[in-house]
C-alpha cells in the first residue's frame, strides 16, 4: 500500500475532557452521578494502516531527548514519568482480549497509532481516559466492530486499560467521554452485579445553566485522593457509608432540579456535594490549593465543587454576568485560570445508538 493510499484510510477520533457535575465520587461506591463533556479540552488519536504495528511517541509528552540533566529533571518534576504511549498500548491489549473472549474476529493488518492532547495535566479533567477513549474509537472503526461492542460496555474497556497501569478511577468519567453531552448515571449494586455496568441516561444539555471552569497552572496529583475513604467504606465505616449515600442522592435530586430548571436548588446541591467530600476526605487529602479554588468562587457567592478529585473546579454563578466578573477578578488575583465551559453534545452516531437499543 502506498503512503497516499494509507493516508486516505486514516481514522481520527477526539475525546473530550469531562466534569463531574453532581454525585462524584459515589460512582465507585454504587452511587449515582451526573457528568458532562467539556469542549474546551480534548485528546485526539490518529490511526493509519501500516506494515508494522507502531505506537508513536508524542514529541512533547513522551520526550526522551533533553538539552541537559537539569532539563530532564525539571521536566520529570512538572510532567511526571508517563506520557500517552502506555495508554495506547493498554487499550490495544484490552480491546484485543475482549474481542477474543467474545468471539469477535479481527482482520489481519497493522496500523500506526499517534495521539495529541491539550487537556491540562493533573486537573481532574480525565486527560488519560480521553486518550484511551479516542484510541478505542479508532480501533472500533479500523476493525469494523463498532456495531458489535455495545456503548454501555465501552467505558469498562477504557477503565480496564487504565487499571492495567495502576490508575485509580471509576466509571463515570469514561461514560461521559463515550457518550458525550450530559449524562445521568446510576451505579446501583444490582445493576453493576447483574449487567457489569450502570444505567446511563443522556440528558438535554440545554438544561444546564452557564458554567465556568477554574483550574491551577501547577495542580496536584488527582490519583491519591480516594485512598483512606475507600478502605473505610470497605471496612463498613458508618459515617463514610451514610455520607456516600447522601452524595449519591445529590445526583438524583439534581437531575430533577435541572429538569425543573430550579437553579437555586442546583447551586445548593453543588455546594453540598463538595462539603460532604470535604467532611469525608479531610483537608489534608484534598489539598490547600484545591480547597482555595472552591473557596475563591464561594467568596463571591458562586456555587462550586471539584470536577474530579481535585485540580479543577466547576462553578455556577446564579446571579449572572455581574457575579462572573467578580469571579474573574478573584481568580486573576489568586493566580487561577478561569474559562466559560463549552458543553459538548452527544457523540453517539446511528451505529452506536443501535447497540444501545439491542439487548
From TrEMBL:
Which cofactors are reported in the record for this sequence?
Answer: Mg(2+); Co(2+); Mn(2+)
The residues the entry assigns to the signal sequence are none
Residue span(s) of domain GHMP kinase N-terminal: 103-181
- Which keywords accompany this UniProt record? ATP-binding, Carbohydrate metabolism, Cobalt, Kinase, Magnesium, Manganese, Metal-binding, Nucleotide-binding, Transferase
Q: What class of enzyme is it?
A: transferase
Q: What is its EC number?
A: 2.7.1.43
Q: Which Gene3D superfamilies match?
A: 3.30.230.120
Every GHMP kinase C-terminal domain range: 256-332
Q: Does the keyword Manganese apply?
A: yes
Superkingdom is Eukaryota
SUPFAM superfamilies under this entry?
GHMP Kinase, C-terminal domain, Ribosomal protein S5 domain 2-like
Q: Which InterPro entries match?
A: GHMP_kinase_C_dom, GHMP_kinase_C_sf, GHMP_kinase_N_dom, Glucuronokinase-like, Ribosomal_Su5_D2-typ_SF
A single Gene Ontology MF term assigned here is: glucuronokinase activity
Reactions it catalyzes: D-glucuronate + ATP = 1-phospho-alpha-D-glucuronate + ADP + H(+)
Q: Which family does it belong to?
A: Belongs to the GHMP kinase family.
Q: What does this protein do?
A: Sugar-1-kinase with a strict substrate specificity for D-glucuronic acid and ATP. Involved in the biosynthesis of UDP-glucuronic acid (UDP-GlcA), providing nucleotide sugars for cell-wall polymers. May be also involved in a salvage pathway for glucuronic acid.
Q: What is this protein called?
A: glucuronokinase
Please spell out the taxonomic lineage of the organism that makes this protein. Eukaryota, Viridiplantae, Streptophyta, Embryophyta, Tracheophyta
